[in-house]
């Protein structure tokens, strides 16, 4: 059971890569904790980071399933 | 198509063409352009990046929402990514409606929602260095504060 995690902008700089595959089943909130443990550079930095699951903004209690693409969305700055 | 993300110069005419129709007597356009300063800092370039597939999808969704909320309105938008210089257009929004009030209103809603929700980021580049716009710099902790050059315009969290 694995999901693809995408990193963008400032978060990508902190993690040092664009994406990775993570063995994970659980909610978005749980995934945030897992990623903070996996990447020390993310610890305490996810407060203003939103999550998208399969290209839609996700809520904290949403459950990730096998094959999902989950993106970490730091504060957007378009326009 | 109501929205797109491009890595080439945006065309206002192309976006207007997407909303132009015989029943629309009012067309409104908003162009967001790279400025030479931000919060007191000089800016020479902005490097835009996006989660392109989601950005396009989110802009399409915003357009559909606005067209459902305001009767008779059509909207379209394009966002640019890549390295932009001062004066380059980063985003073009267009709206059409039977009359001007709804066209202005729809165009305003469109740019506001794009800025709020669309996954696009910009890295500000100027004589003072580079930083992600809207992201608190990791170095700016009470302990780390003294370690890097500061100026009045620098905002913390």
Describe this structure in words.
The complex is a heterodimer of chains A (79) and B (157). A 5-stranded mixed sheet of chain A has the order 2-1-7-4-5. In chain A, strand 4 and strand 5 (56-57) form a beta hairpin. Chain A has helices at residues 9-15, 28-38; strands at 2-7, 19-23, 26-27, 50-53, 56-57, 63-64, 69-73. Chain A is built from 2 helices and 7 strands; from the N terminus they run E-H-E-E-H-E-E-E-E. Chain A is an alpha+beta fold and 79 residues long. Chain B is of the alpha+beta class and 157 residues long. Chain B is 28% helix and 34% strand. Chain B has 3 helices and 10 strands; from the N terminus they run βαββββαβββαββ. In chain B, a hairpin with a 2-residue loop joins strand 3 (37-38) and strand 4 (41-42). Chain B is elongated, with a radius of gyration of 18 Å. Chain A binds chain B through residues 6, 8-10, 13-14, 45, 48, 52, 55-57, 71, 73-79, and chain B through 32, 48-51, 53-55, 57, 79, 90-91, 111, 114-123, 132-136, 138.
